[in-house]
Amino acid sequence: MQKPQCLVPVMATPNGTLVHPAYFLLVGIPGLGPNIHFWLAFPLCFVYALATLGNLAIVLIIRVERCLHEPMYLFLAMLSTIDLVLSSVTMPKMASLFLTGIQEIGFNICLAQMFLIHALSAMESAVLLAMAFDRFVAICHPLRHASVLTGPTVAKIGLAALTRGFVFFFPLPFLLKRLSYCQTHTVTHSFCLHQDIMKLSCTDTIVNVVYGLFIILSVMGVDSLFIGLSYILILKTVLELSSRGAALKSFNTCVSHLCAVLVFYVPLIGLSVVHRLGGPTSLLHVIMANIYLLLPPVVNPVVYGAKTKEIRSRILHMFSQGGR
Questions:
Q1: pTM to 2 decimals?
Q2: C-alpha distances in angstroms, 129 versus 66, 76, 169?
């Protein structure tokens, strides 16, 4: 049963008094009752454990194994670290919602979660672009790979990804705080997203709409464009190789990254499209948002663990020693 909202006048402005709710209400998955939500919490906890263990294992293996201190694996460690934090920002709160049925999330906590989700997604997009650049240099300019992607360069790319994600998405909580929320305060997701919170406002949201569109195009849009361009050039180089075996071997090094790109960008593009078609948040919005946030942290370590020989052998070695 939903509790009555406590509305808090925040400050007086020339256009009136800003009104913020003390908390938002998370719905979870619309149309499902408390009993179904309760049983869904158990597979969600399993998924969270799988994502945590998988990404943590990849980070630790790359950290310990000196032979894996190469650009491709260092970028993979960054990707796994981001996925580890992203899953921890979203899945425990979802599991708590499903298990206990407690829907409330504090106004400021909701904004903080929203910022972390969007900023971490931007960082993941930047790392995927860096990994595409690494594959492009390795395949198209193999003799220059070691001189172009040095250790300091990789560190600078990681710092740039972190800085860009923070800078571009830091204004979002403040843009949402300048709005009044005097209508419904029900967030039709299991977590807080900018588009969903923005729709709850009873004041003009044109600034939020424009800025949200600007950052999605200038961050994820630009990244996806350059990733696509990298693979066009990679494919052109691979097709020009005289040996079919060499061509397959070269392109096989890109399969794991291609899977990570598709798992990240396909749900993201779909979610952006359905949100901008207008209308109330539907079950389709919720399912696509869940896929977008929950799938990459689980799939990425599985794909890279299966396709990367060095990581796979190290994991098998760990399990074989643990079984003795």
A1: 0.88
A2: 24, 12, 18
